[in-house]
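WARN  no MSA supplied for this record, continuing single-sequence
INFO  ligand: FE2/S2 (inorganic) cluster
INFO  echoing inputs
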Amino acid sequence: MKPARFFTPENLQIVKRLVSRYPPGQERASLVPLLDLAQRQHGTWIPPSAMQEIGNTTNLSFEQVFAIVLAYPTSFQWRPCAPQLRICDSWMCCQKAKQRDNGIFEAAQSIASQYGVEVKTTSCLGACYGAPAFWFNDKIHTDATKETIKEIISKEFT
Ligand code: FES
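INFO  complex generated
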């Protein structure tokens, strides 16, 4: 009997696209994006069937895939239940936020408590051009103000 596939037909197309970005024999380079895709499909952690299928696709053993999952526990073994908001506290964003005196961290904390959003700081998001920047549910937002943070979070919950 053929084992059931983990990836949905739609995600299998994405798998093929991700793997094809690398030259033959270098399929393992697509490992992290494949794990991310598996986790998004499954919703929380990555089940063994996904690790097996990813191993078959990338010519890695189950144990090699599992080792990567273990190496990044906060990334691949669970996904936080509460929505996440990360405010960049690297130099450029701090300077811009200070210049504008926009109190975004305090605003984010206050809004977060209303919606159960977890707020933390993070290092540079690579969006310095639009400082101050923040990350909310897999998306980077730039030119943060109290108002934009409130608008973006509240939109998520309405
Ligand atoms: S310093 Fe904040 S995004 Fe780079």
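The longest helix spans residues 9-20.
INFO  checksum written, moving to next record
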